[in-house]
Amino acid sequence: MQEYIFQTSVSARYLLLPPSASGPAPLLVGFHGYGQRAEDALDQLSAIPGSSDWYCCAIEALHSFYTSSGSVGASWMTSRYREERIAENVHYVDGVIRQIRAQHNTDGRLVYHGFSQGVGMACRAALLGSHRAFGVMLLGGDIPEELELQGSTLRVHLARGNRDRIYSQEQFELDKARLQCADIPFSATLFNGGHGAGEEYFAAASEFLFSE
């Protein structure tokens, strides 16, 4: 048996919430967790105080499936054909941002927000993509091991709920050590909660979003 890879195109979906005021505005792009949809990511972005001043974009993963509850969710990738999926996802995100900037009055500032499985996507988009990001916000997920952090000009907000059983305290500490070793400016928030977000997280995220 011989195996071949055939490249094709698929339809993709993203949601965009314009800022409340007119005029140029920055762009905040969110990536949902495993089994979630773009609506979940947009809900998180919208809950960050002050995010109404931004274009809030939630990008849905390319690979849909039925979850155990029978609802439709999506996944960014699995370990199968990993390198191909990473390249496809980064290309996809680059295209979405290019389209938004062509059609809307953005001011050039770009920040990525990832939750759980979406953390890896936020990191890859920022470090491998063609659009320069000013910061990444990482909630409940680890920084991919293969990414080279040295020399990056990113600012990072790293966050974990103290009862999160998926993103462990040990991994949280390892990620902080990686960022420190790479001389990347970052803030770390350990908030009261599980694998998700609450008011304490959103307040810290807002502080990061509007810091210089």
Which outline best applies? globular
Largest sheet: 7 strands, mixed
Going by CATH, the architecture would be: 3-Layer(aba) Sandwich
Strand order of the largest sheet: 1-3-2-6-7-8-9
Secondary structure category: alpha/beta
**Hey, roughly how much beta strand do the residues contain?**
15-25%
Output the CATH class name: Alpha Beta
Task: Please work out how many helical segments DSSP would assign.
Answer: 5
Summarize the structure.
By secondary structure, this protein is of the alpha/beta class. It has helices at 38-47, 82-103, 117-128, 169-181, 199-209; strands at 14-17, 25-31, 55-59, 63-66, 72-75, 106-115, 135-139, 155-161, 186-191.
SSE arrangement:
Blueprint: E1 14-17, E2 25-31, H1 38-47, E3 55-59, E4 63-66, E5 72-75, H2 82-103, E6 106-115, H3 117-128, E7 135-139, E8 155-161, H4 169-181, E9 186-191, H5 199-209
Parallel strand pairs: 2-3, 2-6, 6-7, 7-8, 8-9
Antiparallel strand pairs: 1-3, 4-5
Report on this structure.
The protein has 212 residues and is of the alpha/beta class. The protein has one domain (14-209): 3-Layer(aba) Sandwich (Rossmann fold), CATH 3.40.50.1820. It contains five helices and nine strands, in the order ββαβββαβαββαβα. It has helices spanning 38-47, 82-103, 117-128, 169-181, 199-209; strands at residues 14-17, 25-31, 55-59, 63-66, 72-75, 106-115, 135-139, 155-161, 186-191. The strands form two sheets. The chain has a seven-stranded mixed sheet, with helices on both faces. Strands 4-5 form a two-stranded antiparallel sheet. Helix 2 crosses helix 3 (117-128). The protein is globular.
